[in-house]
Amino acid sequence: MHTISELRKKFVAGELSPVTVFDEAIATITAKNGNINAFLAVFTEARDEAVAAEARYKAEGDAAPALLGIPLAVKSNILIKGKNATAASKILENYTATYDATVIARLRAAGAIFIGATNMDEFAMGGSTENSAFGPTKNPLDTKRVPGGSSGGSAAAVAMGAVPAALGTDTGGSIRQPASFCGLVGFKPTYGAVSRYGLMAMGSSLDQAGPLTHTVEDAELIHSIISGTDSYDATTLTKDTYPEVPVKDKCVFGVPRKFLADGIDPDVLDTFNAHVEKLKAEGHTVVDIDLPVFEKGLAAYYIVMPAEVSSNLARFDGMRYGLSVEGDNLLDVYQKTRAQGFGKEVKRRILLGTYVLSAGYYDAYYGKAELVRTKMRAELAEVFKTVDVILTPTAPTPAFKIGEQEDPLAMYRQDIFTVPVNLTGVPTLSIPMGTVEREGIDLPVGVQYIAPHGGDARLFAIGKKVYDERQ
């Protein structure tokens, strides 16, 4: 599969047809999805849009919209009007979206063709896409292994060559970790840069939609289309929300060495160190930094996030939409619907969230976690006075085998480098930094670049230089 920029050039030149690309995408899905399970639904009827796009290119040429005729996959917790949106949960198995999410409306206006809804961890709760009610997704690079999560279906859709890009959501690393495991570029924008209207809420103060692509250039293009203030989402940013973050040719990178000392795979650390040396060789400055509060992000996240999950998923009660199981009374309907409709990881997080919000425990747990969150933001603001970008591995390991991480706490530790970013709301870009060998297969691993609030453009500029230009 070509990149978006390559497809666009070929469409404009008449060297390739949107219909041909659509048909090839469907053929790839037909051939591979039975094994990979990246897609929960495939929109073959969208071929009519490819036919219309082809005619439009003939009439408009380079003046056509930026994504005209480009097939995209969309995570199943993002609403597309008239399409099934399950969030990979039995409780929404037969739910059809009644409106477009803002990100979908903006991509549609840019000419994108939505080819299917992708698998995910149920309601975005997980880091492996094993928590789907419709079966796990496999990593196309090694089908014994997970593609990451919760946007694993979107990552697999791109990695298996079905589409040039896909849309995911990132609450604690759910775009970046799958990007790392599947050898892709994944971008989590500044919180509020992209509207959450039409995204099924998991953690309202954490969720952001973003792209999974083969190049930073393509990620930047998609972000430029889906970002911006939205009257339907009061948390979206304005141009004046944060001070301008300048783009620099040579940067000062900060590496939190103490943060990398515990629990990281030695091969991943070696690959990270090699990446750092490349940056030095290219004229950048790399310094060690301390982030003692930032390092506590994992503990704080697994209090804040379940609390928001408990609140957001209260709406799934069998009364308004989705699954409804008959009971003897109203409470019985609630209990039976949620017991049958939710999977074990969702139930685990609802229970934990309800506990930390309950009387007598709110101040002891949730209140303190929010205090840590405030201190993390202050710590980052101070560090960004001396460095331009912070570097860490995206994940502490390469893709692990399906069924290997049975301990929930061990699974949560996979998020150690990603969740502090969502708690603080800063933007992050994950790019491939190399591979590590496992059982004769070279598995990709990623590095994440963290910028100050509003520093999205800085990340794209750096990413294009250190990744796109090296390819």
Key traits:
single chain; 471 residues; alpha/beta; Amidase signature (AS) enzymes; eleven-stranded mixed sheet; 15 helices; 11 strands; Amidase_dom; AS_sf; protein biosynthesis; ligase; ATP binding
Write structural notes for this entry.
GO terms for molecular function: ATP binding; glutaminyl-tRNA synthase (glutamine-hydrolyzing) activity. It catalyses: L-glutamyl-tRNA(Gln) + L-glutamine + ATP + H2O = L-glutaminyl-tRNA(Gln) + L-glutamate + ADP + phosphate + H(+). It is an enzyme of class 6 (ligase). The protein has 471 residues and is of the alpha/beta class. The chain has one domain: Amidase signature (AS) domain (Amidase signature (AS) enzymes). The chain is 38% helix and 14% strand. The chain has an 11-stranded mixed sheet with strand order 1-3-2-4-6-5-10-11-9-7-8, sandwiched between helices. Strand 2, helix 4 and strand 3 form a beta-alpha-beta unit. Helix 2 runs antiparallel to helix 3 and helix 7 runs antiparallel to helix 15. The protein starts with a helix and ends in a 5-residue tail after the last helix.
Provide a brief overview of the structure:
38% of the residues lie in helices and 14% in strands.
Order of helices and strands: HHEHEHEHEHEEHEHEHHHHEHHEEH
**Name of the CATH superfamily:** Amidase signature (AS) domain
Mean pLDDT over the residues: 96
Shape descriptor: globular
Largest sheet: 11 strands, mixed
- Could you tell me the CATH topology label: Amidase signature (AS) enzymes
The assigned CATH architecture is Alpha-Beta Complex
Helix content: 25-40%
The CATH first-level class comes to Alpha Beta
